[in-house]
């Protein structure tokens, strides 16, 4: 009977040579080390994101500087332009950022393009131009006296279409720069979050390691 009781006691006590306190201390130590590894990984992630953000910002600024675009001075803004907050805010300033590119593309170029051909786009003006050319060809074949009027109208439509082409091209390039600038801003925000999370994880890991040392 005594042998049976002693055997049961040994079974409940766990494996021979194992101390529960040391086991918990080892687990705390491993958790702390793992936390330090996570903190280092977060610092690396934050550094990569911050580097990408810096690259995007510098690249956008360089491209905008090469275009040498400047917002209209405040005193030359039209009443419609004065109703656009960003045009008033950036008045007279050189265009160097993604936010400025978006403002100039949508609220300056975009609004002016709507007035060129009653809101029609470059691609929509193609049908108008084609129709006028066909009418002019028929009029010339029939010696129509209205040939001169059609030629002037065609020249006007061609000029408007060229203006729309140039404006929409510049607007597209500016919006592309705006997209890169936005990605750079998001990357910078992600880097800030990664660094903050790294600091929190690092602090918690150090506390766990200290606690494991004390309990050991």
UniProtKB/TrEMBL annotation:
Residues 1-10 have a biased composition (Polar residues). Keywords: Membrane, Transmembrane, Transmembrane helix. This is Uncharacterized protein. Residues 1-24 are annotated as: Disordered. It comes from the Bacteria. The chain crosses the membrane at residues 29-49, 193-212.
């Amino acid at each position: 009977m005594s042998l049976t009781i002693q055997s049961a006691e040994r079974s409940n006590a766990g494996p021979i040579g194992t101390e529960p306190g040391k086991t918990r201390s080892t687990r705390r130590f491993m958790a702390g080390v793992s936390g330090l590894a996570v903190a280092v990984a977060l610092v690396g992630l934050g550094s990569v994101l911050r580097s990408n953000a810096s690259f995007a910002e510098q690249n956008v600024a360089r491209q905008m500087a090469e275009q040498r675009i400047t917002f209209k001075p405040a005193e030359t803004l039209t009443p419609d332009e004065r109703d656009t907050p960003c045009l008033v805010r950036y008045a007279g300033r050189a265009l160097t950022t993604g936010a400025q590119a978006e403002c100039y593309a949508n609220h300056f170029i975009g609004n002016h393009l709507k007035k060129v051909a009653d809101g029609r786009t470059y691609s929509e003006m193609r049908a108008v131009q084609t129709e006028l050319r066909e009418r002019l060809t028929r009029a010339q074949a029939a010696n129509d006296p209205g040939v001169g009027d059609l030629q002037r109208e065609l020249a006007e439509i061609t000029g408007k279409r060229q203006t729309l082409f140039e404006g929409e091209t510049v607007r597209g390039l500016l919006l592309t720069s705006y997209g890169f600038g936005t990605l750079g801003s998001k990357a910078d925000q992600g880097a800030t979050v990664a660094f903050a999370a790294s600091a929190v994880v690092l602090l918690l890991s150090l506390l766990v390691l200290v606690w494991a040392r004390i309990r050991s």
